[in-house]
Specification:
Blueprint: E1 2-8, H1 16-31, E2 34-39, H2 45-59, E3 65-70, H3 74-77, H4 83-95, E4 98-101, H5 110-120, E5 124-128, H6 137-147, E6 152-154
């Protein structure tokens, strides 16, 4: 069994091209034997990846699994989110194959511990990482994966300005 983790920024330039690249990358990994996908349940990239895995599970690959690794209880993680994002998060949680809540409350540093757990669970990482934001949690997770020799596929797209 091979495992993939996702990490990425909360602010994502979601395009048709990016969604296609993400789905194609997940398909490639499944064809190479990846069956388990781990995500952190954050807004932005995490939720985009979670939705992509669930969509592919429902249409093409019924054997793949989505695992959520949450840093704190869902009500604390989503406390400042808008209602639409909270509802999407709950739908994803209901459809995920498993969810692990690492700590019983939010605290400064729980997200870093969640990122560490994601890297521990991975044989490969798909990210949306802007290297200009190296101090972010995404940057930390990418460095953790690279330090463990885990291949990292970065789907970050710079926005073209004309």
């Amino acid at each position: 069994m091979k495992k993939c983790c996702f990490t990425g920024h909360r602010n994502v330039n979601v395009t048709v091209s990016l969604k296609r690249k993400l789905a194609d990358e997940i398909r490639r990994l499944v064809d190479e034997g990846v069956t388990d996908f781990y995500a952190g349940g954050a807004m932005g990239w995490d939720m985009l990846c979670e939705q992509a895995v669930l969509s592919l599970k429902n249409t093409e690959y019924s054997h793949i699994r989505l695992h959520l690794v949450l840093p704190c209880p869902p009500d604390e993680q989503t406390r400042r989110w808008n209602q639409r994002d909270k509802e999407l998060f709950l739908r994803i949680m209901e459809k995920a194959d498993s969810s692990e809540v690492m700590f019983d409350r939010y605290f400064n540093g729980c997200m870093k511990e969640r990122n560490r757990r994601l890297a521990e669970n991975a044989d490969i990482c798909i990210c949306y990482y802007n290297p200009a934001d190296a101090s972010s949690g995404t940057g930390q997770t990418v460095r953790l994966c690279e330090g463990k020799g885990i291949p990292v596929v970065n789907l970050f797209e710079t926005q073209k300005i004309f």
